Amino acid sequence: MRGFRLRGFDGLIYIALLAALIYVALTIATPPPDAPIPPETPDGPSLPGPAATDPEVYVSMPFAHESGSGTAFAVDEGVWMTARHVVDGCHQVALLGPGRRGYQAGAVRASARSDVAVLDVDFNREPLAMILHANELRMGARGYHIGFPRGVPGEATSRLMGRETLVTSGRYAAREPVLAWAETGRTRGLQGPLSGMSGGPTLDDQGRVVGVTVAESPRRGRIYTAAPASMRDALAVAGAAARLEADQGDFIDPARYQRDASRLRRRARVAQVLCFAG
Q1: Between 181 and which of 56, 154, 158, 205 could a Cys-Cys bridge form, CB atoms 3.0 to 4.6 Å apart?
Q2: In Å, how far are 85, 199, 205 from 215, measured between CA atoms?
Q3: 27: how many CB neighbours lie within 10 A of its CB?
Q4: Which has the closest alpha carbon to 210: 109, 129, 113?
């Protein structure tokens, strides 16, 4: 390889340009302190209601329920919400609190119409604020999915794409409207499927629950959540009173959502749920 020498003013210009290019490259390549930030796009129109023409997504549940884990979040005094497929058919269900202490669920109320379940647990934590009416949501709005993917803390971000119909077969059959979110980022180091995040809350910018994570399509980059109506119905069946959207939530900083999610887990308002198949 041939070498070259810089002379005089031309050399100073070259060095300045090189320094500028390095600075721009590093600025672009350096990730945010915590995690990728969802792209800035304005929210669109209000989310339309369910329609017969909504696309369908199919999920087949194995008939034999194996032991595993998911995520749950506090919705009332001693009442927790999670995904039905996480706890349905389990011999025993428990939450993991601070210090990995287990709290057994006294009752598991699984919805017959959606992938949502409510747990009665003798473990009280400040409930999360909830939005129980979909007309509060707008297309393109940010979503923050919090939980324990593959048994470890993690979170993902997304943008609301619209509605689809989740068709479940196998261990139980259900057909329900769900919200479809386009994944836009994950906290650093989180790779692979998001299994274990099922049952976790999906929060808006104001820290209010707008859905329950129930499924994903890695190939399409989609995350699916139970709709507010499904959460409302599950709470009604359980006789629980939600902390509603009129209450102040905990705001989520798009540039620091990993920190905000960690705070919710540290305070055990979002907890890991264990299923023992027996």
Answers
A1: 158
A2: 10, 9, 21
A3: 8
A4: 129
pTM: 0.81
Higher pLDDT, 202 or 132: 202
Q: Which of 159, 111, 126 is nearest to 271 (CA)?
A: 126
- From CA 136, how far away is CA 46, in angstroms rounded? 7
The residues, any chain, with a CB within 8 Å of residue 85's CB and separated by 6 or more, are 61, 115, 168, 171, 198, 214
| Residues ≥6 apart with Cβ < 8 Å to 34 | 187, 188, 255, 256, 257, 258, 259
Contact yes or no for 185/36 (Cβ under 8 A): yes
Burial of residue 194 (CB within 10 Å: 0-12, 13-18, 19+) is buried
- From 128, 147, 275, select the one nearest 204 (Cα to Cα): 128
Sign of torsion over alpha carbons 61, 66, 71, 72 = positive
Confidence at residue 5, expressed as pLDDT on a 0 to 100 scale: 37
